[in-house]
Design goal:
alpha+beta, Rossmann fold, Tumour Suppressor Smad4, 3 domains, 25 strands
Length: 456
């Protein structure tokens, strides 16, 4: 019915076949050209200016046979799935139907499958779902938006619906990580943080190095984040949007990037890892109040108003540490690296945030952490600052009462207040932990975690 390949050399093969897009759309005769990096097709036409459609081979996802009921016995039909790109870095799965003769099909499918199977795309994933994240739609998101795409792409999954805090830790403690190609969290920033913390601790289960005093071993198990929570800040930083299907396709494509992690230490003992932000003072108290109202869903974020209206300061001394030694306490102290006095809060962002045209732009693998200390200010100025930080507006840290220092880590000491019984909390990626000592260290661990996706 169709001639064999029209053109062959070591780098390029061209086939002639029928192609159709949407269901019941009339097929057209096209020339399909395949190289190692791109697949292109153009309609066979008498004119020389036929429109060309190009797909990067990294965006090819799967090819499946179809039963068409065609009267043409020698015609073999397949549906090819691929990623289509849209503005705002949004991605969608699309497909076309290809019909070709037997000899063309054998050659074409052999090459396509070599490209798809030879890539870094995952074949088996461990999926954690938080059923109460955000609007409590985690399981629905997985069933309707993840599972169908994973099934099309031939990805096997092991699904765990979390039932309690630290459930992920108990699962990973006994899980054989060599049996999977990655982990997926369906929830918010907090679920990712719990997974990342448990994964780094898992890396040290059989290690002779003490995790409390050493830089954690880099994890080679990539983590993918599906934005089914309330904030979903990390996904927005990663992909430039909070679109669920885009996040799923980043996981399926299999491209990964390294990201920094911050460790919080008390009395030389590791308390928790964070992948997005560590917040102390007002930030910790606001997250604590939110957690008390988790049953309210997203509306619980109005709960911190009480903590904000109180706006209690804490007398602190903050020291920035420079260098890349393995010890938590032996870094050298650099110039212009001390802050002291009454402060409302400390924000330590793991991705470094710099001013962009309209939004703050994150850098995931910087060589230092940035600490933003909020000193005494008016109620109105403080509120304006917090609203800008919440929406990551450019210039959100450009206030006289916000002081910024950088370093490979920080030592924070609370100045004792006689008779004070005030409790202090740390916000780590939207979760909170009660501090048990009057001082703590924060340390940067460069590139400790691997994420599915490319950095924004």
């Amino acid at each position: 019915m169709f001639p064999n390949s029209l053109e062959r050399n070591m780098d390029k093969v061209t086939y002639r076949m029928n192609l159709s897009g949407r269901q019941n759309q009339k097929s057209v005769l096209v020339d399909v050209t395949l190289t190692e990096t791109v697949l292109m097709w153009a309609r066979v036409s008498q004119t020389k200016n036929s429109e060309v459609t190009s797909i990067c081979t990294d965006d090819l996802l799967a090819v499946q046979p179809l039963q068409t009921g065609s009267d043409v016995v020698d015609l073999i039909t397949y549906r090819m799935f691929y990623v289509e790109h849209f503005p705002q870095r949004v991605m969608r799965m699309n497909s076309v139907v290809l019909s070709m003769g037997h000899s063309e099909a054998v050659s074409f499918l052999t090459k396509i499958n070599l490209i798809i199977n030879g890539s870094s795309k995952p074949r088996r994933l461990l999926v954690f779902i938080n059923p109460i994240s955000g609007r409590k739609k985690g399981t629905t998101v997985y069933r309707k938006q993840l599972s169908p795409l994973f099934r099309i792409c031939g990805i096997d999954v092991d699904v765990v619906v979390t039932k309690r805090r630290r459930h992920i830790s108990s699962v990973l403690e006994k899980y054989d990580l060599s049996s999977i190609d990655g982990i997926v969290t369906v929830g918010g920033d907090g679920l990712y943080s719990e997974c990342m913390d448990a994964l780094l601790r898992k890396q040290h289960q059989n290690s002779e190095i003490e995790l409390d005093t050493a830089t954690p071993t880099m994890s080679d198990i990539p983590v993918g984040i599906i934005p089914a929570g309330t904030g979903n800040v990390l996904v927005e930083f990663l992909h430039g949007n909070k679109d669920i299907e885009t996040a799923v396709l980043h996981i399926i494509k299999g491209k990964t990037s390294r990201s920094n992690v911050a460790g919080l230490y008390e009395n030389r003992k590791l308390t928790v890892f964070a992948g997005l932000v560590l917040g102390f003072g007002l930030c910790g108290e606001m997250v604590r109040d939110c957690e008390k109202m988790r049953w309210l869903g997203p509306t619980r974020h109005s709960a911190p108003l009480k903590a904000f209206f109180q706006r209690r300061t804490i007398d602190l001394e903050v020291t920035s540490r420079q260098g890349a030694t393995t010890s938590v306490i032996e870094d050298t102290i650099g110039p212009n690296s001390r802050l002291s006095g009454p402060m409302y809060s400390l924000d330590m962002w793991v991705p470094t945030l710099v001013n962009g045209p309209r939004k703050m732009k994150p850098t995931f693998w910087d060589s230092s952490l940035s600490l933003h200390a909020v000193h005494k200010c008016s109620f109105v100025d403080h509120l304006r600052h917090l609203l800008k930080v919440n929406s990551r507006q450019t210039g959100c840290f450009d206030y006289d009462f916000v002081k910024t220092i950088q370093g490979s880590g920080f030592k924070v000491c609370l100045q004792r207040s006689h008779g004070s019984t005030r409790k202090h909390y740390i916000n780590h990626d939207g979760e909170h932990t009660l501090l048990t000592s009057q001082s703590f260290d924060v340390r940067l661990h460069e590139g400790a975690i691997k994420l599915f996706g490319t950095m924004n």
